[in-house]
Write a structure and sequence with these properties.
galactoside O-acetyltransferase activity, 4 helices, 7-stranded mixed β-sheet, alpha/beta
Length: about 190
């Protein structure tokens, strides 16, 4: 099993592997090009990200955007992210349709061993899944292995350390459900 295959499976892997170093370099080049692209030409800007990021429909992303690899990110239709989105995509990060992402949000599928000697040698991760019609407020952090259900609102500044069920308003550090939503009928 290659280091890339281990990484994508959520197993411990060597991030210094030459192929992974090259993949991260290519992602950094893509992000750099996107972040410096002409803001008046949205189609050209989004085409840069589509070299690696999988879009299942229309999307609008404000610069700046950063990711580790890009090829582990899947974004649903009608995706919007404000400035300074960071997605650490060592494992799959899937975001559903009609997602609104506030400024300065960090979504991380990446983690490290607790043991300091192991941390020097390996990394690992866990997939992140965010459902349809989700709004992540500004400065939200979503940790590895988290599932945020459909129709959720995550309040600004929250740190999501546990799964959030469908139809929830959740806030805080650690993030906790404070209210259940009854979605209205679609128009």
């Amino acid at each position: 099993m290659t280091e890339k295959e281990k990484m994508m499976a959520g197993l411990e892997y060597n991030a210094r592997d030459e192929a992974l170093v090259n993949d991260r370099k290519q992602a950094k080049i893509m992000c750099h090009r996107f972040n410096l692209a002409d803001p008046s030409d949205m189609a050209a800007r989004m085409a840069i990200l589509a070299e690696r990021v999988q879009f299942r429909g229309d999307a609008h992303m404000e610069p700046s955007f950063y990711c580790d690899y890009g090829y582990n990110i899947e974004l649903g239709p009608n995706f919007y992210s404000n400035h300074n989105l960071t997605i650490l995509d060592v494992c799959q990060v899937t975001i559903g349709e009609n997602a609104f992402i506030g400024p300065n949000v960090m979504i991380s599928a990446a983690t490290h061993p607790i043991d300091p000697m192991e941390r020097l040698k390996t990394e690992d991760g866990a997939p992140v899944w965010i459902g349809d019609n989700v709004w992540l407020g500004g400065n939200v952090s979503v940790l590895p292995g988290i599932r945020i259900g459909h129709n959720c609102v995550i309040g600004a500044g929250s740190v999501v350390t546990k799964d959030i069920p469908d139809n929830s308003v959740a806030v805080g550090n650690p993030c906790r459900v404070i209210k259940t939503i009854t979605p209205s009928a679609p128009v």
